[in-house]
Amino acid sequence: MKFVIKLVFLVLFFLIPLSTFAHGVSSVDQTILTNGGLCSYIYVGAKHMLTGYDHLLFLAGVVFYLKNFKDIVKFITVFTIAHCVTLTGATYLGISANEHLVDAVIALSVLYKGFENLEGFKKMKLKVPNLLVMLFLFGLIHGFGLSTRLQSFDIGSEQFLLKIFSFNLGVEIGQILALIPIVFLITSWRNKKSYPAFYKAINTYLIIIGLALFCYQLYGYFR
Predict the structure, then answer these.
(1) pLDDT digits (tens, 9 = 90+) for 16-33
(2) How far, rounded to the nearest angstrom, does the alpha carbon of residue 212 sit from its chain's CA centroid?
(3) Residue 22 in domain
(4) Based on the structure, what is the number of domains in the chain?
(5) 43-52, 65-74, 83-92, 195-204: which has the highest mean pLDDT?
(6) H helix and E strand count, the chain
(7) What is the span of the domain harbouring residue 163?
């Protein structure tokens, strides 16, 4: 079982460089959006979420904390509502910020979840923040990051709101597709003897990658 845990670390390690470019605006995606209809926005939105490792690592950290499917649906719904608010609102109103700064805060959300899962607050004798509140706040930030990416594309003014909604729909589809294997892996491992070691290893990784991505984004901002 130690081999499996090491293998998970190895896979995640090689995802680190991919995660730093996960949200890049590619000319291929721009071409798809320019030549396609609303369905192309759904496709690019789903693709963006499925390659958005910082978003997915944060969601994985949330799933680790929850014990049953009902709670998973409840908490993920709160996160989804929050990022829909800022994704739609900020894009429609043209509100944006430096992408490196936004991604730096998203990286901190990954670090935060790993730290909380490892009972970092309790060990420091601090009150644990309400998870639903934190999920909503982080959801707003993640949604703002998604909005920043969408605004990096040239989407024109025709059917503007429908394009935003289509991209948002794609993000939700991508999130569901990504969560299915994450939830399956974590819940199926929960009753195994190796789960405590698996839990500690992955959440330690969340702290490390969160810090690494935070430093990377700050470097990109000040460079």
Answers:
(1) 444 444 455 577 888 889
(2) 15
(3) no
(4) 1
(5) 83-92
(6) 10, 0
(7) 27-222
| CB contact at 8 A, 97 and 148 | yes
| Domain assignment of residue 127, yes or no | yes
Per DSSP, the three-state class of 4 is helix
Residue 45 lies in a domain: yes
Distance CA 89, CA 170 (A): 16
Amino acid making up residue 14: F
Interval 125-178: pLDDT, tens: 999 899 899 999 999 999 999 999 999 999 988 999 999 999 999 999 999 999
Q: For residues 198 and 145, what is the distance between their CA atoms, to the nearest angstrom?
A: 30
The answer as to whether 4 is a domain residue is no
| CA pseudo-torsion sign 192, 194, 4, 109 | positive
